[in-house]
Amino acid sequence: MSDGAQPSGRGPSLHTLSVGTAGPRVAFLHGLFGQGRNWSQIAKALAGPGGDGARSTLVDLPDHGRSPWTEEFSFTAYADAVAATLRGIDADARWMVVGHSLGGKTAMLLALRHPELVARLVVVDIAPKSYGSLDRFSGYIAEMERLPLDDLTSRGDAEARFEEPNRGVKAFLMQNLRRDGDTWHWQANLGLFSADAAKGTGSVIAGWPDAAADLAPYDGPVLWIAGSESEYIRDEDLPAMQALFPKVRQLTVKGASHWVHTDAPEVVVEALRRFVRPLAETS
Fold it and tell me: pTM (2 decimals)?
């Protein structure tokens, strides 16, 4: 594979890639319309030159990448699917779990529902709250739905027809477009996300499950990374975060947007190295 990551199989449910050969177990969870491989460069840096700094598993969440689709979105189902996948890879391991945005909410619920699996938790630019709706993504979804898949002749043709002006966003979304013979399809479960976006303020994806309030707080160390230029984390979100994750500490990355690990990879890598170090020392 061009990103240097090696397939480690589907495990019991979800598709994964592995990076690194030894060291603490680290799992990476991507955001909406992402894929596990979006974390490849961070994972390779964390593994180090010899590959023994950390063993990372890059997970394709349900409805994304090469993982199975679901009929109804559920953070609980996402978290449980990740838990089953991690247990299938190493039944005895306790993992440092890193999640961004949608993956961050999944990671938080994973730690709350399966604390025995999670030695340390890293949440990237998301809070345990409802964001109201998927308005930020509705335009992307509509644009993806407008692309005439039956008429495409090549990837270049698809890119020319896809009108998103931001080159980075365009590349991020277009990674979901796949060709099978003469036919094209979206790898992400676009229909599911479109239906959820149509719910407006009732969006499940933009929300936070009420059932989380009934779960015991996660008592492991938590690193909460925010982008200084992002609006996803606000000062008033701290009490809710502390209630669920009492050992949380926050890192705000100057000049970074919601995609903190893309805007400031060196800062994120260094933060993860420091945070995973206690696991390396005890392994």
Answer: 0.94
